[in-house]
Structures are given as C-alpha cells and as structure tokens.
Write a structure and sequence with these properties.
Layout lengths: L1 H8 L1 H31 L4 H28 L1
C-alpha cells in the first residue's frame, strides 16, 4: 500500500497521467467531430448531429476555462 501511495504522488507519474488525459481529450474531440460528419453524410436526424457538435463545443469551452484557471493559479 505504501508503494502504491508513493507512486500515486510521484511527480513523474502525475505528469504522465495528465499528459495521457490531455491526449485522450484531444482524441475525444476529433472523434466527436468525425461522428458528426458521419451522421451528416448518412443523413442522420439533425438532433444527433447537434448533440455531437454540442458535446464538442462544451468540451472545447471547458478546456479554455480550465486552461485560464490553471494559468492564473500557477
């Protein structure tokens, strides 16, 4: 248990975890937009396209808000 706690608080492991989360967020953004284009291409209902675009915009806005917060905090 002690080793796991040390590994959790290790700065290198935290940096790796944060970088992995950032990359996965970028992948999620691209998948949302790709999904929206696929829905447009296959003439899906408009609510599905708008839902995907809305999720993309929500995540992008949240990214900017958190970026500004952490720049101010650090």
């Amino acid at each position: 248990m002690k080793i796991n706690e040390i590994e959790e608080k290790d700065e290198r492991n935290q940096l790796i975890r944060n970088k992995a989360q950032a990359i996965s967020g970028e992948v999620l953004n691209w998948l949302l937009m790709a999904g929206a284009w696929v829905c447009v291409f296959f003439d899906a209902p408009i609510w599905t396209v708008l839902t995907l675009v809305g999720a993309f915009l929500l995540k992008t806005i949240l990214d900017f808000i958190l970026m500004a917060y952490y720049q101010h905090k650090m």
